[in-house]
Structure formats: structure tokens, C-alpha cells
Amino acid sequence: MKWTQIPLGPLQTNAYIIENEKKEAVVIDPGSQGDELVKWLQNQELTPLAILLTHAHFDHIGAVDAVRETFACPVYLHIAEKDWLLDPAKNGSARFTGNEPIVAKAAEKLIDKEEQLTIGPFQFSILETPGHSPGSVSYYQEEAEIVYSGDALFAGSIGRTDLPGGNHSQLLQSIHDKLLELPENTVVACGHGSTTTIGQEMDSNPFLSGF
């Protein structure tokens, strides 16, 4: 299997495409530029089996319907944010000047606990990592040694917690209890910016020092 990072939209939100040799794929956080993302998937001859959302802020969901409707694949989202796709006030698009309200159809699959998620040949461990938003989750692939952390943990930083439902202490607890417990060589595929590793963030992330 291999994965590709594709920054999308004005906030350069990272979409991740995980694929296997049979050209089956999983799309994580298709945030914007739906037509371009669909065209890229088609040019790569990929067949998405599912869309996984780390959370439902507007910059992570803008291309959800374009991908879902083109490939007829279900969307997975934590139950704590089940109505955010439909509500610009909750997904944040109503708060930012210049943004058109962003809405998508409701998710077909609601996550309500930490468990193993199997989508075709793809295996993920769901980690509940709230704090940036109430329903934030991270998707961990142990065999591939990578965790898709959304906006929980970044290279040298952590997610913002000043949006509705954000909680700084809860985010730090999530990072400490769930992400920093992963092997240090685990790649952290962040929602924005470059990838990092758990070990690097343990050693040098100023937001985590002394926690």
C-alpha cells in the first residue's frame, strides 16, 4: 500500500489517499477543490471505497460530496459531529468572512467508539482524540506505521482550540494518552503542513513539553 498527501483549498488542508495494488483507495479529509480531486483520482484509475473524516470543520469537508457522488462510497464521521456536515454554523464555514457556507450530506457511517475499522483490504485503529473539536478522531495503521491525526497534532504544534467545542486541556490529554503512546517511529500525517513522527514531537514540540 502507499499513501499520497494532497493539500487542498486556501487553507491547504491535507487530503490523504491510501491505495493498494488493485487501485482500491480510501480518501481521508477531502477538504476542497472537489472537481480537481475527482479528476486526480480518475487519472490515477483509483476506486475509493470510503471517505474517512478526522473531523467535520469546513476546510476538511468541502469535497466530500463530489468524491462520494462520483464513486458511490460512504462517509465515516464521529457521532459527536453527526450534524456538522449539514450546518455551516457548526462546521465553521459561517464564521469566516468570504467563505461560502459549506454543507454536505450526512455521513452514512457514524463512529461511536474506538475500534478496529476494516474497509475492504484496509485496516485502521480508530483513536478518539477530541479537543480540537468534540468528534476528532485519528486513524492509525499499525502495519504501515502511520497515523492520520487530522488537526490534533502538527509538526511543532497542536490544533487550535478556540472554535466551538474546542478544549485545550482535553486536546493535550488526547495527544498524551492516544498519540504519544504510539511507537516513536510512527509517521504523523497531519491535517495541515508537513508530516512528522511521534518521536520528533515528543522530543521537540514546545506545546507538549512538561505535560
From TrEMBL:
Gene3D superfamilies: Ribonuclease Z/Hydroxyacylglutathione hydrolase-like. Signal peptide: none annotated. Its cofactor is Zn(2+). InterPro entries: MBL_Glyoxalase_II, Metallo-B-lactamas, RibonucZ/Hydroxyglut_hydro. One of its GO terms (molecular function) is hydrolase activity. Residues 12-192 form the Metallo-beta-lactamase domain. Keywords: Hydrolase, Metal-binding, Zinc. PANTHER family: HYDROXYACYLGLUTATHIONE HYDROLASE GLOC. This is MBL fold metallo-hydrolase. It comes from Halalkalibacter oceani.
